Structure formats: C-alpha cells, structure tokens
From TrEMBL:
Start and end residues of each EAL domain: 24-278
Residues shown, of full length: 413 to 702 of 702
Organism ancestry: Bacteria, Pseudomonadati, Pseudomonadota, Betaproteobacteria, Burkholderiales
Name used for this protein in its record: Diguanylate cyclase/phosphodiesterase
C-alpha cells in the first residue's frame, strides 16, 4: 500500500518516517536531561464557575523548552515518555512543581481551590503511585484538599484492578478525581455508576459542535444531565466563544475552561489573575484582555 504512486513516493515516505523516528529519538534523549536541566515548566489554565465567573481552580499543563527544538507540545512528548517509561520521573516532577508553586502562592488558601494534575495511565499502573504522590505532597506540606487528578475516560474505564484500586485510594486520601476528555473513549455507563468520581470534563470536540447544530447541543445537554444524575460536576473544555458559554450556562454546566476566559498562564500571571478576582476588579472584558 505504501508503494502506490511509485518508487518516488515510497522514498519520500521512507525519508519522512526517518525524520519522525529521528525526532522521537531526540525527544526521548532530551527528556532524560530535561528535568535536571530545568527545561520543564508548568502553565495553569483556570477553571471558572459557569454562573458567577469566579475561579474554582486550575489545571497544571506541562511545557518543555528543548534547547534545539524549542517548545515541544505535551501532545507530542507525553506519548513518547509513556512508551519509554520516563513519564514516571516527569510525572513526579509535575506533582513536585505544583506543590512548590502552591506553597509560594499566598493567594491560594487551602480549601479555596484545587489544582488539577493530569495522570497518565502508566503512572496509575505503577504499584507505587499512591505512595509516591502522598510522599511528595506530605514532604511539601500540601493537603490533598488542594489537589485533584485528571485521568482520561479510557484509562478510568479500564477494568484493570490496580487502576481501580489506585483511584479509590487517592480518593480516600482526600484527592478528588476528574474524568478527562469525556465522550472520546468508550465508557460503559454501568461502570460510570460504580465509580465515584467528582468531575466529568466534556471533551473539547463536543464543545466545538455545541452551538453549530441542534444535535451538537442535544449531546452536550444529555452528558450534563447524565453527570448530574450521577452526582458529578461537569466541566466544559475548550470553551472559545460567548455563544458556547451562554448555552452552557443555560444547560446548567458547572464549570468552564477554555481560551475565551483564560489561556494556560505562567504561574505569576495565574496568581495575578487570582489577585484581581479577589479584589473584585475583574470584569468579563478585563478578563478577556488578560
Ligand atoms: P488535556 O488534559 O485535555 O488538556 C487540555 C488541552 O487543551 C491543553 O493542551 C490546553 O492548552 C488545550 N486547551 C485549553 N483550552 C482550549 C481552547 O479553548 N481551545 C483549544 N484549541 N485548546 C484548548 P496542552 O497543554 O497542549 O496539553 C495537551 C495534552 O497533554 C493534555 O490534554 C494532557 O492530556 C497532556 N498533558 C499536559 N500536561 C500533562 C502532564 O503534566 N501530565 C500528563 N500525563 N499529561 C499532560
Ligand atoms: Mg486534562
Ligand atoms: Mg482534557
Ligand atoms: Mg480534551
């Protein structure tokens, strides 16, 4: 199949495969020193209350500035780190860095908001994951009530016993859990019911279609009702327009996250936004300019 179109196409395909493979190797090598070289950093994307517009928390998103490749997207390097096992070290750095940041931010009081950390399925399957997380948070004196974890729908629904146990134990320790990218995986609804997760994050692809067609709106409305009837809060991901936000409010969605209200922000900018909110000086327009 690769050969259709003749010999030149085949060569071109081979050459581009090599380029992709070389880049993957460069990324894997680079990741081995990224932590110690200080090349990783976090951005925080706020989660807003749909009704009041107040900030209820933020999601930590990893960033990597590679010395030669420049900014490399987590969508590219996380899968490579998962295959190589480096995700364990990288994931621990993320938790550690969130804890360090939380300790240095006076604006964030315990109980006032939660910072969400994305957990990979490789992390969740590691037998040490809960002990590792508790060791890091205790060492930094960060209470579980200040953190939550996002796991994708596919990972959450896998009936892997160790995954299930890790999720239960994290919840028992006081961390909340969110199902990320809901709607893109395959969940069994009965499984969803057994599973006491606090938040459901509706995937950005559904929000993009929300105001486009009646069916797009109907699907999101049904997901919100389903989540609420299971006692979960709903977060809409990737909210980019006023029309989407208005409809989400109407549908009683709980929280929104997306470029309309805030892009992922560097720590200092996130804290500045929190301060402006606390001072009550944030209008929708000011927020959009931020
Ligand atoms: P995710 O957890 O679903 O994160 C949401 C992604 O959507 C982020 O991309 C965010 O920047 C982007 N986004 C937010 N609002 C909008 C919007 O309004 N429009 C559009 N077009 N995009 C929006 P990002 O930061 O590139 O991260 C991509 C994925 O990489 C994340 O998807 C998550 O699966 C993974 N990731 C990021 N940080 C970590 C981490 O620390 N650990 C692990 N294991 N995975 C991470
Ligand atoms: Mg996420
Ligand atoms: Mg997501
Ligand atoms: Mg998503």
């Amino acid at each position: 199949q690769v050969k259709t179109g003749g010999r030149n196409n085949y060569r071109f395909f081979e050459a581009s495969m090599n380029a992709a493979a070389r880049r993957a190797i460069e990324i894997q090598r680079g990741l081995a020193v990224a932590v110690t070289n200080g090349e990783l950093f976090l951005q925080y994307q706020p989660k807003f209350d749909c009704g009041s517009g107040s900030i209820l928390g933020a999601e930590a998103l990893i960033r990597w500035r590679h010395p030669a490749l420049g900014l490399v997207s987590p969508a590219e390097f996380i899968p490579i780190a998962e295959r190589s096992g480096q995700i364990i070290t990288v994931g621990q750095w993320v938790i550690e860095e969130v804890c360090r940041n939380l300790r240095s931010w006076d604006a964030v009081r315990p109980g006032a908001m939660r910072i969400a950390i994305n957990l990979s399925q490789i992390q969740l399957r590691s037998p040490q994951v809960v002990e590792d997380i508790l060791a890091i948070t205790e060492r930094h004196g960060v209470p579980p009530a200040m953190l939550m974890f996002e796991i994708t729908e596919t990972v959450a629904m896998q009936n892997a016993e160790e995954t299930r146990r890790a999720i239960d134990r994290l919840q028992q320790a006081g961390f909340e859990m969110a199902i990320d990218d809901f709607g893109t995986g395959y969940s069994s609804l009965s499984y969803l019911q057994e599973f006491g997760v606090q938040q459901m994050k509706v995937d950005r692809s559904f929000i993009a279609k929300l105001t486009e067609t009646a069916k797009g709106g109907a699907i999101v409305a049904a997901i919100i009702r389903l989540a609420h009837s299971l006692g979960m809060e709903v977060v809409a991901e990737g909210v980019e327009t006023e029309a989407q936000l208005a409809l989400l409010k109407e549908l009683k969605c709980d929280q929104t996250q997306g470029y309309l209200l805030a892009r992922p922000l560097n720590g200092a900018d996130f804290v500045a936004l929190l301060d402006r909110h606390a001072a009550g000086t944030v209008t929708a327009a000011a927020q959009l300019e931020a």
